[in-house]
């Protein structure tokens, strides 16, 4: 069942067709799970961040933006992508002035400039150790942004994508510890192509899973994971697998093989959800072969 909730109108109906966040005056453009048991979304050209509770109550917070002096007079700076950070704040991209903004749940906004004001940051995701990874559409790059403390400054590292003309459009962390991204490659005069890329972060696998115990009928096996994310896990969910397929109703941390499992290869998958950013990463253990 689909239930819809109206967004308060900020004063303009906007265009009828949304083709970019700059067109999105009164629409909800991007959304993320976040703090206060709520979902948070952007209303880009209105420079508002909306909050909707699990009961459907909608409220908004303004995000003040200031165009750089290099932009034409009257140019509207718009917000776009949004994610929750491990620091408990919302983080938002400002694609046409090369900044990202930290927004507290109380509505305090702080902007941070990226290396290039014309790089068009269009996507953002939390990474290991409290960092953020940002896709720069016209910058042909990914940025690692180490979230600053109250009085410290951020550490910003830019990674150029090797393919000339690559324009990254989205980014997400993988359980292998890499930042994975999609990009449109538009070299001239060659035709446009699409690709997926991976940026190694040096962290290694964020989640590793193993099965312990004696792999025999009637002897309980235990599924456990190691967390290398740096942030605290909120919870973990388990799924036991037989020959790579889910075993019905076996979602506890322990599993006891039965006679019908003899000869089968059993493994466990752990999906770990992290507090703060509320992102989930999963990994599967090496299989063990069940004996009598």
What are its keywords?
mainly beta; Immunoglobulin-like; 23 strands; 4-stranded antiparallel sheet; 292 residues; 0% helix; 2 domains; 5-stranded antiparallel sheet; Methylamine Dehydrogenase, Chain H; single chain
Structure description:
Pfam families: Vgb_lyase. InterPro entries: Vgb, WD40/YVTN_repeat-like_dom_sf. This protein has 292 residues and is mainly beta. The protein folds into two domains: 21-199, Methylamine Dehydrogenase, Chain H, CATH 2.130.10; 207-289, Immunoglobulin-like (Sandwich), CATH 2.60.40.2700. It has strands spanning 31-34, 38-43, 48-53, 58-62, 79-84, 90-94, 99-103, 109-113, 121-126, 131-136, 141-146, 155-160, 166-173, 179-185, 193-199, 207-212, 221-227, 233-242, 245-246, 254-255, 265-274, 280-284, 288-289. Strands 18, 19, 21, 22 and 23 form a five-stranded antiparallel β-sheet that branches. Strands 1-2-3-4 form a four-stranded antiparallel β-sheet, with no helix packed on it. The chain has a four-stranded antiparallel β-sheet with strand order 5-6-7-8, with no helix packed on it. β7 (99-103) and β8 (109-113) form a beta hairpin.
How is this fold's topology laid out?
Layout lengths: L30 E4 L3 E6 L4 E6 L4 E5 L16 E6 L5 E5 L4 E5 L5 E5 L7 E6 L4 E6 L4 E6 L8 E6 L5 E8 L5 E7 L7 E7 L7 E6 L8 E7 L5 E10 L2 E2 L7 E2 L9 E10 L5 E5 L3 E2 L3
Antiparallel strand pairs: 1-2, 2-3, 3-4, 5-6, 6-7, 7-8, 9-10, 10-11, 11-12, 13-14, 14-15, 16-17, 17-20, 18-19, 18-21, 21-22, 21-23
């Amino acid at each position: 069942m689909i239930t819809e909730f109206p967004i308060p109108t900020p004063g303009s109906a906007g265009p009828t067709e949304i083709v970019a966040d700059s067109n999105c005056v009164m629409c909800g453009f991007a959304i993320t799970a976040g703090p206060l048991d709520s979902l948070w979304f952007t209303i880009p050209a209105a420079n508002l961040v909306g909050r909707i509770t699990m009961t459907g109550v909608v409220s908004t917070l303004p995000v003040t933006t200031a165009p750089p002096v290099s932009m034409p007079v009257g140019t509207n700076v718009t917000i776009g992508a949004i994610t929750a950070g491990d620091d408990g704040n919302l983080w938002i991209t400002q694609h046409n002035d090369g900044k990202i903004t930290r927004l507290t749940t109380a509505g305090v906004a702080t902007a941070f400039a990226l290396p290039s004001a014309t790089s068009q940051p269009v996507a953002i995701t939390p990474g290991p150790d409290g960092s953020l990874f940002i896709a720069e559409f016209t910058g042909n790059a990914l940025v690692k942004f180490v979230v600053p403390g109250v009085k410290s400054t951020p550490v910003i590292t830019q990674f150029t994508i090797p393919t000339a003309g690559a324009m990254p459009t989205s980014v997400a962390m993988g359980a292998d510890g890499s930042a994975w991204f999609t990009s449109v490659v538009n070299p001239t005069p060659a035709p446009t192509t699409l690709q997926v890329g991976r940026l190694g972060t040096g962290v290694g696998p964020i989640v590793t899973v193993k099965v312990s115990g004696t792999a025999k009928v009637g002897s309980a096996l235990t599924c456990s994971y190691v967390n290398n994310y740096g942030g605290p896990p909120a919870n973990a969910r388990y799924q036991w697998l037989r020959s790579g397929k889910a075993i019905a109703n076996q979602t506890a941390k322990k599993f006891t093989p039965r006679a019908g499992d003899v000869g089968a290869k059993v493994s466990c998958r752990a999906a770990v959800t992290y507090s703060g950013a509320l992102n989930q990463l999963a990994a599967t253990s090496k299989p063990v072969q069940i004996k009598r």
